[in-house]
Specification:
This is SH3b domain-containing protein. By secondary structure, the protein is mainly alpha-helical. The protein is built from 11 helices and 8 strands.
Length: 408
């Protein structure tokens, strides 16, 4: 009788490749559910923050904020990783690989630039929430920070419009030193006109390119008219300055859309995918006479624009609150450990913002919850110092006596 042969085990390298393939399958399959779940949580966060602003009572405490922030960013990472895995698998189906890489590289540049301006999106959303809460001073402070430190944020125009509609002053006296000059704005709009003409040389996305050129021409014409009538004031110039980041975003998205279109032109048309189930971007090419859709590419320009204008401010607010809650927990722990005579002990009668200096315009370092016991080391301009570069308003403090505990 013949001896039974033992099955040949695959080498370790092959087993590792199978394992990595399974992980890739899981990430590709989890991409879309992660995206849907993330957007659901973002909607819940938005409703909670709006209700907080309208009614003045906190809905999400520090613990919930921490979990919200952690889960949302994990889901965002899973979604982007799944999209990258699917695109890597479809790479061999793309003929115009240079355009493929250019589109992804341009998306990477956009994401990098947005990551540097995330604080500007936080200022924009915080200013709007402060308007809902009936706090015009806080709104003006966030608008000031937006103009001074993030003048190229595309939400600047939206904030200015909301301020006007609600009858809140822009505080033009404080932001006037940071408004661009007429000459700088004129040069930008003339450059945009020249760029618009160059972009029209390619026929793809012709309607969007023509609209961009018309906006640039109207900007140049309006600047000339205002300058000929009277020297433009800071209030007029800030309106033109708010249009600059919108036009810049428009231009970047036009380049981005053209790069994606190149993949579909001529030899750049991708072959029909053998396994479309891996396309977490939700895009594939159909057979027959049906509409051809791109595969293996980053999201469309219109989706990216919606994400930047609507979703990113919410994510920025979530990240800002997450960082603030983490910093607040550290400050509360350090403040509680301070030992001092009873005469210097105070208790917070409301949630208090801890700032880096004795002024409302200084940076917010954290928030002390109501009932926190505090050691005051110094007072200046109705502000109490509770540590190095930590100041809180005196009006929210009461002396801590044997008959008044933190729970009171």
């Amino acid at each position: 009788m013949k001896k039974k042969q033992k099955p040949v085990e695959p080498p370790k390298s092959a087993r590792w490749m199978q394992y990595l393939e399974m992980v890739g399958d899981g990430l590709a399959a989890a991409g879309k559910p992660a995206m849907i779940t993330m957007f659901g949580l973002v909607c819940i966060w938005t409703v909670a923050r709006v209700m907080e602003a309208l009614h003045g009572n906190p809905v999400l405490d520090m613990t919930l904020t921490n979990w919200f922030g952690l889960i949302v960013w994990v889901l965002l990472s899973v979604w982007m990783t799944g999209l990258a895995v699917a695109s890597a698998r479809e790479y061999k189906k793309i003929d115009n690989k240079k355009a493929f890489w250019f589109a992804w590289a341009l998306l990477g540049v956009i994401v990098l630039l947005l990551s540097f301006s995330i604080e500007g999106f936080y200022n924009a959303s915080a200013g709007l929430l402060a308007l809902l809460a009936g706090s015009p001073e806080t709104s003006q402070q966030n608008l000031f920070l937006l103009v001074k430190f993030h003048p190229l944020n595309p939400l600047l125009a939206f904030n200015l419009i909301i301020f006007k509609l609600t009858g809140i002053s822009w505080g033009i006296e404080s932001i006037a030193p940071f408004v661009w000059s007429w000459k700088a704005l004129f040069v930008f709009f003339v450059w945009s006109c020249a760029l618009g003409i160059v972009l029209l040389m390619r026929k793809d996305n012709w309607g969007a390119k023509a609209f961009h050129l018309s906006l640039a021409v109207m900007g140049v014409a309006a600047l000339i008219v205002f300058k000929s009538i009277h020297k433009p004031t800071a209030e007029i110039l800030i309106v033109f300055q708010a249009a600059v980041p919108m036009l810049l975003l428009f231009q970047v998205l036009l380049f981005y859309a053209s790069a994606r279109t190149l993949v579909m032109d001529g030899k750049g048309k991708p072959a029909a995918p053998a396994s479309p189930e891996y396309s977490t971007s939700g895009e594939h090419q159909q057979d027959g006479n049906s509409t051809q859709r791109t595969i293996g590419l980053p999201p469309a320009a219109i989706r990216l624009a919606v994400f930047i204008v609507l979703i990113l401010p919410i994510l920025a607010d979530l990240q800002g609150r997450y960082q603030l809650s983490m910093a607040s927990a550290r400050i509360v722990a350090e403040v509680s450990e301070n030992q001092a005579p009873a005469s210097q002990k105070m208790v917070a009668v409301a949630p208090i913002s801890v700032r880096s200096g004795p002024a409302i315009g200084d940076d917010v370092l954290g928030i002390l919850p109501k009932g926190t016991r505090i050691t005051v080391t110094d007072e200046k301009f109705n502000w109490a110092n509770i540590g190095k570069n930590r100041w809180i308003p005196v009006k929210f403090l009461r002396p801590l006596t044997p008959h008044k505990t933190a729970s009171s």
